[in-house]
Amino acid sequence: MIIIGVIVVILLTVGIVWAIDNYIPSKLKAPLTILLWILIFVLGYFTFMSVYNEIKFHNIKQDRYAAVIKKLVDIRDSELAYKEVKGDFTGNYDSLVKFIETGKFAIIERRDSTVIDEEKTKAYGGIKYTKEITIVDTLDFVSVKDSLFKQSNRYKTMMNIPFAKEGTKFELKAGMAGEEGKKLPVFEAVAWKKDILYDQPKELVKIEENAFSVEEINGDAIKIGSMEEVKINGNWPKVYDPIKD
């Protein structure tokens, strides 16, 4: 709306210049024309800067969101590993980091086998009956850290929101969700856009928080997981999905 208004004023000013050139006495033409052309230049400059600032904001926003999403994916992967070993999620970063450094995945082997069904054999007077079972063997254990992060220590800072003020962390929650008697573990990690873009123009940040587009991240936050339903995906479109290393 601001850009449209400025363009209208510029066009109106050009019209005034034309009117002066045709209807104003010669003595007044020169100074008035100069003043109006200066006004056109100033308005043109502000129009350019308005467009430029929006483009600049868009590029900054995309770069920052991409960095935030990479960390959210690290948090998600760490939470899934935590649940695989411990049976639930955690809402505490200290516990999550400690688990990554000390936790181990079990490498297991499943094999089918046939054994005597003793209860059925006994019930039918000694006639032998068999049943199929699955035997699970633990072959080895591997480090969670090596599996998820290899030689990287980025898990130690995955809770810090990139580009936000120092000390600003992703909000992390964990709990249970679902119908009574069918509740399952859930988690949610959230970064607020106002924190990610805290040093950007306030009016553009406000617009971003209320924008709606299938190609952008809608709402006032970037998040992964949910405390209301069992889900582990984020609220961003596929264009933001980080490239696997």
Could you explain how this protein is built, in words?
The chain has 7 helices and 5 strands, in the order H-H-H-E-H-E-H-E-E-H-H-E. It has helices at residues 2-23, 26-86, 93-102, 118-123, 144-149, 193-196, 202-210; strands spanning 104-116, 130-143, 171-177, 184-192, 221-225. The relative contact order is 0.13. The chain has 245 residues and is of the alpha+beta class. A 3-stranded antiparallel beta sheet has the order 3-4-5. A two-stranded antiparallel ribbon has the order 1-2. Strand 3 and strand 4 form a beta hairpin. Helix content is 48%, strand content 20%. Among the domains are: 2-46; 63-93 and 157-240, no CATH class.
What characterizes the major β-sheet?
3 strands, antiparallel
Strand content: 15-25%
Low-confidence stretches: none
| Spatial extent as radius of gyration | 31 Å
Mean pLDDT: 84
What is the number of helical segments per DSSP (H or I, 4+ residues)? 7
N-to-C order of helices and strands: HHHEHEHEEHHE
Distance between the termini: 43 Å
